[in-house]
Design a protein that fits this description.
18 helices, 442 residues, 3 strands, 71% helix, elongated, 3-stranded antiparallel sheet, mainly alpha
Length: 442
């Protein structure tokens, strides 16, 4: 027999009722509900349970979706939910309203699933935890803390602000990398075309005259011949290198070595390190301000750091807190990376000749500087650790923004110099034999 989910008003008390009723048809369900003294406002048939006549696996109203939820979409959803909660709307009505506004995809499906779970009696955090591809542990724990403290609208506002700051920083970094990536790709394409189409034509002219070519021209022709013969290696080399890195990262020691290299790599390592510190500080501060216990907050921050060195650091800090220590001291003691052979190997590859020496002189530099340690120490002494972590995050956010702008400004002239040098080398190498031929003919 089908089951119907209904919303109704109790005629005697005026109270809103949500419940289910079993009936053979919709008309019979309405008659049954009216006999209970309720006025029906909404009635819909629910999906049959598996093993009791239910044959489909796709829930009604859901679209096919692959992958997770974009951070931009989740940030906007959180801000909208925060606004609706501040306006005093019931949580279920707010979620249903937002579900109707979403485009078909993973987020819409997840919000609809959350609505169904809440209608079945689950809390918001319990319902969200059943959709991990949309709502991660950080999200669910903050919602749970808001429900426990009776301040869900405050937690949602704080969570939306946290996500907006993180999204803003992510956009700045990505935006700064777009220009150099596009320029490098276009430059590689143009130079490849010159090597495949232009230089061979000049080579035929030089062969017809049979004169001795200058050294620069011989080098250019050799490069052109190599590109024409092994052109498929141009896209294959970065693709193969990416596969090798993924294979190395399958082993924990290899992943740890790669993450250490990324933190200490020339030019961009400092940007990556400051970005992780800023994000981790804001995550930990937001969790603590929301009432999440310190050990749980450290575990969530560890999982969201995205770097094995910081995962190791937060794990050691968590162990020290269990032993009765404060945060600042283990944060300073365990911020020094250990020696890793894989990291030194990557340094040797990227900096031939001096890479190993550079690694040995730099690997003991802490990933957390004294600024963060001192501010955490002050926060613990004053009882305002979350506030101090926010200030640390703001400081590092500004440093990341400034460093990103500086690197962008530095890369523009470097790319221009590189392209000018490459084009100049090609022009000189091609015209030197022509000038010599003209002189011989005259």
């Amino acid at each position: 027999m089908p089951t119907f989910l209904f919303e109704a008003i109790d005629a005697s008390t005026g109270k809103e009722i949500r419940d289910t009723v079993d009936a053979a048809s919709e008309a019979e369900a309405q008659a049954t509900i009216r006999s209970m003294g309720y006025m029906v406002t909404k009635l819909k048939a629910t999906k049959a349970k598996a093993g009791k006549g239910g044959s489909g696996t796709k829930k009604p109203g859901r679209s096919f979706a692959i992958g997770g939820v974009k951070s931009k979409d989740l940030t906007l959803f959180t801000r909208q939910l925060s606004i609706l909660q501040d306006a005093g709307l019931p949580i279920l009505r707010s979620l249903k309203l937002l579900a109707e506004m979403q485009k078909p995809g993973r987020l819409k499906n997840s919000v609809m699933d959350v609505c169904d779970e809440i209608e079945s009696g689950a809390t918001l955090s319990e319902a969200m935890s059943k959709s991990p591809k949309a709502f991660d542990r950080l999200y669910c724990n903050m919602i749970r803390a808001g429900e426990a403290g009776g301040a869900l609208e405050v937690i949602l506002r704080r969570l939306s602000e946290f996500m907006e700051r993180a999204e803003s920083l992510r956009r700045k970094v990505k935006g700064a990398l777009v220009y150099p990536i596009v320029v490098v790709c276009v430059a590689v394409g143009i130079l490849t075309f010159i090597m495949l189409k232009i230089v061979p034509q000049f080579k035929k002219i030089f062969d017809d005259f049979g004169s001795e070519l200058p050294g620069m021209t011989q080098i250019l022709i050799s490069i052109s011949t190599w590109v024409a013969t092994y052109w498929y290696l141009i896209p294959a080399i970065p693709f193969g290198f990416n596969l090798v890195i993924k294979a190395i990262k399958l082993v924990p020691y290899g992943r740890f070595g790669w993450d250490l290299f990324v933190l200490k790599m020339p030019v961009f390592g400092q940007l990556v390190e400051k970005n992780i510190v800023a994000r981790s500080s804001r995550t930990l501060g937001t969790l603590l301000a929301s009432g999440v216990p310190i050990l749980e907050a450290l575990n969530i921050t560890k999982e969201t750091s995205g770097n094995m060195m910081f995962e190791r650091l937060f794990s050691r800090v968590s162990d020290s807190i269990r032993d009765g220590e404060a945060i600042a001291k283990p944060l300073k003691n365990y911020a020094v990376p250990p020696f890793n052979l894989i990291a030194m190997l990557f340094w040797t590859i990227f900096c031939p000749g001096i890479g190993a020496l550079l690694y040995l002189t730099r690997y003991k530099k802490p990933v957390v500087d004294d600024l963060m340690v001192n501010m955490v120490d002050v926060g613990e002494e004053s009882g305002e650790l979350d506030t101090m972590l926010y200030k640390v995050a703001d400081t590092y956010d500004e440093e990341v923004a400034v460093l990103t702008e500086s690197l962008t400004s530095l890369m523009e002239p470097l790319l221009i110099i590189f392209l000018g040098g490459a084009v100049g080398f090609i022009v000189i190498a091609l015209f030197m034999p022509l000038i010599k031929l003209i002189q011989d003919l005259s």
